[in-house]
Amino acid sequence: MAKNVAQSPLETSMASLDQRLAMAKRCSHEGVVAGAKAAVLASIATAIPTFASARMLPWARANLNHTAQALIISTVAGAAYFIVADKTVLATARKNSFEHASNN
Question: Would you say which domain of life the source belongs to (predicted)?
């Protein structure tokens, strides 16, 4: 009997809102995962030359203490995370927007 009852506009808009919220959650999750992967890779790619230069180069040995080395590595990792996460969220949202427009 419930199949014959039409949904009210409020129920339709709530269903659409739930669908949009789920899509936004999925987009942000994809961004977090991609950003975390980029941060790990950036940390490794930055840590190796930073530690090597702090041991081998006289200027770096004199001027880069452990705090400076950690700051260099964490800054690069943080920047990589936010840049990649932002680009991933925007790309996913754009893709979903085009798919939604083609379905209508």
Answer: Eukaryota
pLDDT in tens for each of the 104 residues of the chain?
455 555 566 556 766 788 888 888 888 999 999 999 999 999 999 999 999 999 999 999 999 999 999 999 999 999 999 999 999 999 988 887 777 666 65
Q: Which of 13, 36, 41 is nearest to 82 (CA)?
A: 36
* Helix, strand, or coil (residue 57): coil
d(CA 70, CA 77): 10
SS3 of 1, please? Answer: coil
Q: What residues contact residue 34 under an 8 Å CB cut-off, 6+ apart?
A: 84, 85, 88
Could you tell me the residue ranges of all domains in the chain? 27-103
